[in-house]
Amino acid sequence: MIALERVRKVHGEVVAIDEVSLAVAEGELLVLLGGSGSGKTTALKTINRLVEPTSGRVSLAGEDVRSMPAPLLRRRVGYVFQRLGLFPHMTVAENIGVTPALLGWPRARIEARVDELLELVELEPASFRGRSPAALSGGQAQRVAVARALAAEPRVMLLDEPFGALDSRTRARLQAALAKIHRRLGLTIVFVTHDVVEALLLGDRIAVMRAGRIIQVGRGRELAQAPADDEVRALLTEPLEQAAAARARLAEGP
Amino acid sequence: MNELLAALPTYLAAHLQLSLAALAGGVVVSVPLGVLATRRPRAGRPLLAVASALQTVPSLALLAFMVPALAAVGAPSIGWLPAVLGLFVYSLLPILHNTTVGLSTIDPAILEAADGVGMDARERLRRVELPLALPLIIAGIRTAAVWTVGTATLATPVGAKSLGYFIFGGLQTRNYAAILVGCAAAAALALLLDGLVHLLELGARRRRRGLVVAGLVGLVGLAIAASLPTLRQAARGGPRPLVVGAKPFTEQYVLSRIVAGVLERATGLPATTLDSLGSTVVFDGLRSGEIDAYVDYVGTLRAVILGRTDVPRDRAAATREVREALAREGIAVAAELGFENTYVVALPRAQAEALGLEQIGDLARHAPGWTVGGDYELFHRPEWQAVVATYGLRFASERSMDPSLLFEATRSGEVQVILGYSTDGRLDAYELVPLVDDRAALPPYDALVLAGPRLVHEYPAALQALQALAGRIDAAQMRRLNAAVDRDGLAPAAVAAGFLRELDARP
Ligand SMILES: Nc1ncnc2c1ncn2[C@@H]1O[C@H](COP(=O)(O)OP(=O)(O)OP(=O)(O)O)[C@@H](O)[C@H]1O
Ligand SMILES: [Mg+2]
């Protein structure tokens, strides 16, 4: 469904991503996992042309993404920004309905869609439709951002660390909600995170990035069993060791 | 006071019309320019620089500059058009500046989100950038509104009706109530306009349709109220009323009303006066037919149309020369009124008597310790050079100031001697005594009633009626008329009416 072929992006001296190749199957949820500055966001943005690669090719459903005007492409691809980017001058309902409005949907259909999506992300429509983004908690804002990305019924969703900076309970609820949406709608999803646990939980496959390159791609179990190098091994085992150590401390008790 | 209040609605409406038109033009031009400036910084930076440069031009100069600029392209060069253009230019910067700042300080993450949801450049501008920049744009419009209303008072010297009528006129005739009325009305208007625009902004920001509607209704209502007099005038139809011009001093206010009275009686047409016009503005207006008559002085005309700046020796020859030059411009001299208004060297009577000063020459001894005051033009004029050279005067310093302040300055002691005007009622009001020009250094400034092309060609009867004024006002009479305004506080119109009644009574 999505294919990156030897994609490279250079900002002056800085190589943001280098020779990145990746294929995402239809209906798959692929996680881009890597540390800060490893190039996850850059790779994700080449898919809907928020970043134009310096070289290489990106295609969507077999078509080069450059074959159509960027705005039209983006209306077909849901995107959740790392910093959410809700429009502060619009209500929650207007934020969610923005892409359908650009596509010229009739008003009634937009309104119905907004209610449907608010229910889907578990926000009470009557209470949230008319709110300003400034009047939302962090978790509520992230749900609205996900709903906005889903609004125009895209077949492809790109999410850039959508659940960062949330308490663990809220995050777990949102992760579960996303997994449910993915399964129900059969979307193709690329999900960026630097959290291994989240990657293991959500990803059908995980692509590990470091310094602008993809080091290894595979199912979580495959990565744990045959890590490409020590760093990937450390990446996958460290959280397990940390969890074990934490549990041991708990058992010792005060 | 009642007369002031009776005139207020007309001038208030004209002031409002001028301000609203300039402001509307400013908004319509500046906001798109601001958008352009942020899209194309290479075009935008020079654009902002030009707007800033224009803003540094003093507003009075900017308005005055519009007169010759318009005349050069053959457009109506006095009155509404130059005023509205000058104010329009003045309103550009705050709106342009705020639009650019508002558009260029939007969080880049929001702009990227707009791209991300699939907006093209236009949609992004309309749905995201302009709404987010709106508070700043409106703030710019509010600034421009207050400036425009304030600056519109300066439209009076270029011949547009505005509240400046009360301020300029009041300053010249020492009518402080008039100044107060003009300033208070302008301030109230500025606050009102500011408030209405603010209402629009609040409504847009809080999405309260009621507020937006209230703001719009207010603004549209104001616009309609402001254009009512113009519309009524247009509906009434018929020939344009006759217009008599006046420069900004008392004598001109009185004489213009006398001339207007004579014209009304002779033609049956309404005749209006246009007060406080700049000296070249009024002459240009007469020549182009936008003004039908006014009173000017031989010396001034000689300088303005003939470019002659020497002091003429022969008074009759000078007048003849000016008459011929005027005729070539299609302007007739309807009457020589019978007095001259020339510069006089004057000082407080008490001082003159104490020091025994009678003639200008007597000043030579005291000049090195004294400051002399004069109007803005004086010290550049040949008359001043002639006085200095003829009598060998050297003053400690020369100070230019507004004629309305000149007389006050003798009282406060800021200047010891002034060059005033021979028929000025304020000479008496401030107890100043003119010194005798025994060596005839100062040129004659005989007052002439000038008639423009329209009177000459279409209203010969009016021209004849004006001729009846010839020789009817001597210097003493003129001083009395001026003093009735300056000292006794009568309205120029009332003084003129009194004079016309007297004239009828005389054989
Ligand atoms: N517009 C840009 N100009 C210059 N350098 C950039 C730009 N965008 C990204 N980079 C650089 O490219 C590299 C990859 O950035 P990217 O945002 O893709 O990382 P990331 O993996 O998403 O990091 P994080 O987890 O912190 O969001 C970084 O070193 C970053 O500094
Ligand atoms: Mg990132």
UniProtKB/TrEMBL annotation, chain B:
Sorted UniProt keywords: Membrane, Transmembrane, Transmembrane helix, Transport
Membrane topology, from the record: Multi-pass membrane protein
Domain ABC transmembrane type-1: 12-202
Transmembrane segments: 12-35, 47-71, 77-96, 132-156, 176-199, 211-231
UniProt entry tagged with the keyword Transmembrane helix: yes
PROSITE patterns from the UniProt entry: ABC_TM1 (PS50928)
Chief location: membrane
Domain of life: Bacteria
InterPro entries, sorted: ABC_Gly_betaine_transp_sub-bd, ABC_transp_perm/SBD, MetI-like, MetI-like_sf
Coiled-coil regions, chain positions: none
SUPFAM superfamilies for the chain: MetI-like, Periplasmic binding protein-like II
Compartment(s): Cell membrane
Family, similarity comment: In the N-terminal section; belongs to the binding-protein-dependent transport system permease family.
Protein's recorded name: ABC transporter permease/substrate-binding protein
Species this protein is from: Nannocystis pusilla
